[in-house]
């Protein structure tokens, strides 16, 4: 099927998204389409694998679930029909604790935690556009991982439904995950040099 680059249209929806070529990865943020290529680097994949491992091991016998891209997260506005949703993203990792938000297409509504691993291609979108998007949607915790620098910025939702200043961690630190009482992510393992 056709893709956004070929159509030059504004105001894309989930209905459009479902018709696009499955060999290409796209996101739509408030109707604007973003191509997800190029493919992630080996370092990106290694970091994703370790984070996913640590979350998966912790969540093994719990009700929350963890998923990695490609996994569609649809963020509808109040009365928006499924086909008219204008925001569909594919975060690197999501944790969803409300099973009612999960269906065969992915997640409909805000995940509890989102992790984005930045690349030169995505840094502006992850740090500016998605930060505002996830805050507005009500994502409780948003992590931005900088692979080359060995840094993780963690934004946590405050009582005012806004993100406060980020907590910044380096490659020798451990991060206590805010949405759980007893999960600590070991960044030495995440940024381990192979």
Automatic annotation (TrEMBL):
Gene3D superfamilies: tt1808, chain A. Keywords: Endonuclease, Hydrolase, Nuclease. CDD domains: DUF820-like (cd06260). The keyword Nuclease applies. Residues 16-176 form the Putative restriction endonuclease domain. GO terms for molecular function: endonuclease activity. SUPFAM superfamilies: Restriction endonuclease-like. PANTHER family: GLR1098 PROTEIN (PTHR36558), RESTRICTION ENDONUCLEASE DOMAIN-CONTAINING PROTEIN-RELATED (PTHR36558:SF1). This is Uma2 family endonuclease.
């Amino acid at each position: 099927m056709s893709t956004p680059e070929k159509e030059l249209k504004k105001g894309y929806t989930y209905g459009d998204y479902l018709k696009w070529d499955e060999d290409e990865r796209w996101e739509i943020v408030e109707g604007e389409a973003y191509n997800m290529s190029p493919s992630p680097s080996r370092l990106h994949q290694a970091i994703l694998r370790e984070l996913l491992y640590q979350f998966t091991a912790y969540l093994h016998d719990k009700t929350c679930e963890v998923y990695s891209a490609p996994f569609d997260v649809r963020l509808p506005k109040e009365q928006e029909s499924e086909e008219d949703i204008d925001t569909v993203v594919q975060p690197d990792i999501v944790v969803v604790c409300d099973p009612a938000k999960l269906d065969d297409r992915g997640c409909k509504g805000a995940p509890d935690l989102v992790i984005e691993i930045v690349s030169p291609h995505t840094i502006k979108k992850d740090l500016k556009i998605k930060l505002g998007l996830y805050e507005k949607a009500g994502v409780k915790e948003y992590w931005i991982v900088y692979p080359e620098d060995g840094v993780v910025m963690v934004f946590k939702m405050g009582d005012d439904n806004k993100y406060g200043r980020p907590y910044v961690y380096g490659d020798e630190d451990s991060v206590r995950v805010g949405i759980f009482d007893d999960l600590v992510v070991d960044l030495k393992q995440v940024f381990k040099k192979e």
